[in-house]
Design a protein that fits this description.
The protein has 2 domains: 2-220, no CATH class; 227-312, Alpha-Beta Plaits, CATH 3.30.70.260. Helix 1 packs across helix 4, helix 3 (59-78) runs antiparallel to helix 4 and helix 7 (159-169) crosses helix 8 (174-188). It is built from 11 helices and 6 strands. Strands 4-5-3-6 form a 4-stranded antiparallel sheet. It is an alpha+beta fold. It is elongated, with a radius of gyration of 22 Å. The protein has helices at residues 2-33, 42-53, 59-78, 84-103, 119-124, 130-151, 159-169, 174-188, 196-220, 237-248, 275-288, and strands spanning 107-108, 114-115, 227-233, 253-259, 264-274, 293-299.
């Protein structure tokens, strides 16, 4: 009974942290990036484009619709391996976008212009280049929220699902898919801008945003776009390998080993994964065997299915 209650408490904590991460992400967008005329990529950036064309549908609703469609397409093409945490993050993010939109006060510029949810714009308007300042601040806040989500095994969907679909047919690195899709979405913002000048400014702000955003996530996650190589030495190696396969959806290689001090044979479970998935794998190994001996290191190049294509080197 006690272990069950402990497991429930840990799960509740994880979902609470995931919710906090999504609200931070939504705050960065709603309070900083959008009011200052910024733009971004992924499902949120696409939602901004569609919201500009169809303003009767809220930003949060578009986030939910786009991710929902991607989930359905991805489910039929690559299988339903997204996990409840990804679905949870998508739902919370959709709610948080509209919630912050309702909670945040509007800002009034010195010219009398009213900016929706622009309270921070009002307070920073006397600072030179205040729009860029807010773009950077929003990117840091949003990136922190996503990094928190990754640390608990969550995902905001969007580009992650697109990457899974593309990798079903062709091996392209996650980073290249993210950059390509973000550049395309941000570039399309010029078609919904009021004029060419403001459209160019939005594109420039967007590229600054994704650079700071990506750097923030990488710093917090110690390089989320890089890979980790994990070695797990445990007598329960088979149970750990099965759990990693089923729960984390990662491949495991079992290597024969020998402890030279004890002269006893052992098995080593080796896992190569994205750094954003490493914490989930460590938790699985620790849950099954608290005394497991584990090492983890950064891998600069990983080639093969699900990673970089060797032909691209």
């Amino acid at each position: 009974m006690k272990p069950s209650l402990t497991k429930m408490a840990v799960s509740a904590k994880e979902y609470l942290v995931l919710g906090l991460g999504m609200f931070l992400y939504a705050f960065g967008w709603t309070a900083c990036i959008i009011p200052s005329g910024g733009m971004g990529g992924g499902a949120t950036g696409m939602s901004m484009l569609l919201n500009a064309i169809f303003p009767s549908i809220t930003l949060g609703q578009f986030v939910f619709i786009i991710n929902g469609v991607l989930l359905l397409i991805g489910g039929f093409i690559v299988g339903w391996n997204f996990g409840i945490k990804t679905i949870y993050c998508i739902i919370v993010l959709s709610i948080a976008m509209d919630a912050w939109g309702a909670w945040l006060p509007d800002g009034v510029l010195e010219s009398g212009e009213v900016i929706a949810n622009g309270l921070l714009v009002q307070y920073t308007q006397t600072i030179d280049s205040h729009n860029i300042l807010l773009i950077i601040l929003g990117a840091v806040v949003a990136g922190s929220g996503v990094a928190i989500s990754f640390s608990q095994g969550g995902s905001t969907g969007g580009t992650d699902i697109v990457a899974m679909i593309i990798n079903k047919y062709k091996t392209i690195s996650y980073g290249k898919i993210v950059i390509s899709s973000d550049f395309f979405i941000i570039g399309c913002s010029i078609f919904v801008a009021d004029d060419i000048a403001s459209g160019i400014a939005t594109i420039v702000y967007g590229y600054i945003m994704i650079a700071v955003y990506g750097y923030t996530v990488d710093v917090i996650q110690s390089g989320s776009q890089q890979s980790s190589q994990i070695f797990i030495i445990s007598p329960k190696y088979a149970e750990i390998a099965d759990a990693i396969n089923i729960e984390a959806h990662r491949g495991v290689t079992i290597i024969d080993g020998k402890g030279w001090y004890t002269k006893s044979e052992c098995k080593i479970a080796m896992v190569v994964c994205r750094k954003r998935n490493a914490s989930e794998i460590l938790k699985i190994a620790h849950r099954i065997d608290e005394n497991a001996f584990i090492t983890m290191g950064s891998v600069m190049g990983v080639y093969g299915q699900g990673f970089e294509a060797l032909s691209k080197v």
